[in-house]
Amino acid sequence: MHIDAHQHFWIYNPAEYDWIDDSMAALRRNFMPEDLKPDMEGTGFHGTVAVQVRQTMEETRWLLELADRSPSILGVVGWADLRSPDIRSQLKVHARNPKLVGIRHIVQSEPDDRFLLQPEFLRGVSVLEEFDLAYDILIYTKHLPVAAEFVERFPRQRFVLDHLAKPPIKTGKIDSWAHGITRLAEFPNVFCKLSGLVTEADWQHWDPGQIVPSLDVAFETFGPDRLMIGSDWPVCLVAASYARALQVVEGYLLGQKPECRDAVLGGNAQRFWRLRAS
Asked: What pLDDT does residue 278 have?
């Protein structure tokens, strides 16, 4: 089963999606499961993991309702206030739904570069294992050393790094990023999504060859058993169609063994989140 490990849905309004600036004007509309369905069918993908965008419990509830109505949504990575002393009660509300598979916080937007190590946040993350929930790490390259300190504290917690920590594909200066990735990949409980890469390139003038060096590092460090393909739809649309965004990784996998391709294209996601087809 081919699984898109990272995509989003939203009902657009300017106030809640103010990060969508004029350069991303094509994203200023609703994106729902029925919009994604033709692209999934055209590319041979059978299911997705829908990931939060807004940091509200309301959105988490809404995504789970979408998942209950849409068999193609195999899992939801939602949001909960991990800094709240009431975090267990928040998680109890939604963890009854088996499609809640993980939690994410938009750490890349926090002004504190060491946000992951704040005591309140660490306390909240320590609760996730009780609910069998993974944690999505959304950061920039500059946060990679802190992320390594962070995951080292939780050897039994499942983590997945979003978007390969956004390598500087546009400039091609990936040495510092590669060093940070190498350190983070040393922790066997950390997986990684090969997603969001086309939007780290020049949106109008990129080609797969510019992304290959970052994929080389990912495969050398994490190995094919801890990597997952993801589209980052609809955000990817500013730089590529759904099919072309996925083709970057699919094309790279042509040189891999069939069992490696199967793992990256769905097997690893299924195993990491314990996904079940509806």
From this structure: 63
